Structure formats: C-alpha cells, structure tokens
Model the fold of this input.
Amino acid sequence: MVCRGIPWRGTITAADRGYFRRARESGEFSIGEYQTGRVTGLEAVNFGYPLKDADGKVTGVIFIGFDLDSFNRVAATTPLPEDGTITVLDRNGVVIGRHPIIKAVQAGQKLPNRRVLEAVFSRPSGVFEAARADGLKRLYVHEAVARNPDGTIPIRVLVSLPLGEIFTDANRALVRNLAGLAIATMLLVLGAWYGTEVFVLRNIRTLLDTARRVRSGDLGARTGLHREKDELNQVGREFDEMAETLQRRDLDLKKAMQELQEQAITDPLTGLHNTRYLRELLPRELLTAKRKGTALAVIMIDVDHFKRVNDSLGHEAGDEVLKELGALFKKSIRGSDIACRYGGEEFAIILADATSEGARRRAEDIRAAVKRLELSHGGKPIGGLTVSLGVALFPYHADQTTTLLRKADEALYQAKGAGRDRVVVRDAADAAPQSSATAKSRSAPAS
Ligand code: GH3
Ligand code: MG
Ligand code: MG
Done:
C-alpha cells in the first residue's frame, strides 16, 4: 500500500485480500468480503479497482473501504412494511448490513438461519418461505447486487416479511415490489462509487484536463480514453480525433505561414534574400556587432554593362545570368554571412565579424570568380561578364544602416568610375563621425 485517504503510517500489505487478488488477476473491478480494516480497525467491505498502464497491464489496485455503517444506513432508509427486515450479505453469507439491528443477526457473522442461508445461496435471486428460529413462517426475497469477475456474487440483499394466513397473492406481489425497491436502493449506493467515481468522474476529469491543455495551446494533449466502449470513452476518442485534426491544421498553418514569411523575404529569381530582409536584418546585425565590439562589412555588387547582355541575348538570358550570379554569391559566403539581391542587377553581401582587409579579400575573390564564370545561353557563350564591388565597414565608415549602405554604394560607383571590374573599399579618410561607444579602441582600416 503506497498511499491512503486518511492519515496512516507504516507498511501494510493487501495482497491476501480478495478484492485485491481478483482485481489484479482479472484486471477488473472487484468487491471484497467482510473484513476488519488493517488501518482503521473497522469492519468493512472493500471495493478494488485495477490501475493499468498504457499496455493494459495492472500496475496497482485502488480501493475504497465501505464501513458496515454505510450498509446499515442504506438498509435503515429502505422503506419496509412493519416487522420487515433487510439483511445485506457478503459472498460468504456473512452479514454486512442489517435493519433493524438485532442481537441474533450479528454483523461479521454468518447468517444464523442455516435453511435461509442455503436457500439464498442456491440461486442468484428468488423468493421462498422459511420458518424462523421462533417457528414463525416468513417470506424471503433475495437478489444479487453485483458480480465479481470470477462470477461470484459479492453482495446479496435479503428482505424478509412475516407470512400470515392473511397474506394474499396480491400482498406477495407487494412484498416482491418492496424487496425490489430495497435492492434498487442498494444498487444505487454501490453504483454511486463504482459508476460515478471510478468511471464517470475520473474520465470527466481527464476530459476536462485535456480540454484545458488543448485550449492553452498544448495541441498534443490527448485524453487516451480509448479502452472502454462506454459513452465517455467515445467522447474521449472523438475529442482526441478533434485534437489530432486541430494539431494537423495548426502544423499546416504554421508551415504555410513560414512559407509565406520565407517568400516575403526571398527574391524569387535568385532565391537569395531580398532588400526587405536586408533592411530588417542589418539594424539587428549592427546592434550585435556593437555589443560584441566587432566590425561588419557590406559589399555592394553591380554587374558591369548588364544592359548589353539584355540587349544582345534578350531579357531571358539576363535572368539566367542573374540566377547564376546568385548561386555563385551564395556559394562564396560563410554560414554567418548573408547574400541579398539588392535590386535589378545589384547584390549586397553582409560579412559579420569582418576586418577591412578580410572584406577586401572576399570582394576580390568574388570579382575573380565572376570573371572566371563560363556562361552560355542557347548554345552561345556569354563572355566578358564582370562585376564592380564597393565595400564599407561598420563602425569605421558608418554606424547606421542607411549610411552604411550608402557608403558601400558610393564605393561601388567609385569602382565603376575607375573603370569597372574592381573592388573599392571605402577610404578611411571619409570615415563617418563615430559614436564614442563604437569607436573607442578601433584603429582606422587600411583601404
Ligand atoms: P553599369 O552598371 O556597368 O554602369 O552598366 P549597366 O548596363 O549594368 O547599367 P545599369 O545598372 O544602369 O542597368 C541595369 C540593367 O539591368 C537595366 C535593366 O534592364 C537590367 N535589369 C534589371 N533587373 C533585371 C532583371 O531582373 N532581369 C533582367 N534580365 N535584366 C534586369
Ligand atoms: Mg550594372
Ligand atoms: Mg545597376
């Protein structure tokens, strides 16, 4: 026993109790027999309910003890004609409830009247006449209240009434009805725990908890109520299927949103990032660089005489060239760098954690790689493709996104002016005024 509903310390085993053994072996609800509780010391009948893991294996038994008082109370509230008695018996014929309480019929002992006991145990239910110890004949009605998984009847209700000459058939029918009422009441009490608490309440709790979790965004929550065939389990199954659909739709939606977001920041022709992305990203990158005290380079690239490609080979060929260039730029950057299509045939590459010299070298490599490209369109070679590149660095030349881009652009146009197919790194001499935070220990870059 690992825990209990009332204060209790120590170790107790319930392994020998009938309700425990049957619940464990059969995996089903089982009612025990008259016993003296090992914790309470009270006379009781225990109800055992198996706890199962996901594979249906019994891992424990939860039980509730019904003090004999509970049975007595039910018996006392059952409407009976005068001199009528009601007795509740366990599976062994031991009295576990009685009204009225009399010395001759003691709780915890077998029903003293052997003939009555035999008659009750000969059939699950029935009506018979028998004489009491005092010789008075009585009418007995008995009924099984529940059934254990091993087929035994754990609780029987026995109602008896005095049988006089005056009893007519009609009166007997009345007695039967009264006994039926008593049995129904008893069933109701037992059902209150077995039906309501164990199955209904627990399953409702599971349903509510799962609904709460799903509502708070945990779409992976499931009730797991699939094992039984009752209505609540059906609701659980429906709920889980609904949660499954919700989760699937949520995933589809997230995927669609992600795709949309990707599209919004991607250039469809080259697959590189677009200007929108660059303008969103650059301020963040500048902040990071500022925090880390590192430099960041922007390389602006513009294709030389690109109009000629369009004019001589057509717009489609121009597009093809832009695609190839995009692929080349993507190939020539590191994981932490970003390549964007800045506009028509202009590109920008952001190098995080760069030095002036490092950025120049990378720009040179790109320039040389473009020059080496051997492109063709419709079988005709596209020769002489070159690019001009302008480089500006944060924080040496600018500490703001727009100025940094402008400085790189100006360097690019210097390269154009100087004859194209070359790299110009923004001169240290025209470095922008620096904020004290970013400029403190930085020497001007070589250009
Ligand atoms: P340079 O830059 O060396 O001064 O000469 P350029 O011929 O490249 O001149 P400019 O930058 O003014 O012209 C760019 C041309 O690129 C103009 C435009 O038709 C073409 N262009 C811009 N976007 C695209 C595009 O998506 N596809 C194609 N095929 N052409 C484009
Ligand atoms: Mg151009
Ligand atoms: Mg241009």
Summary: The pocket of magnesium ion (ligand 2) is lined by residues 302-303, 306, 345 (CB under 6 Å). The first helix runs from residue 18 to 26. The chain is about 45% helix and 20% strand.
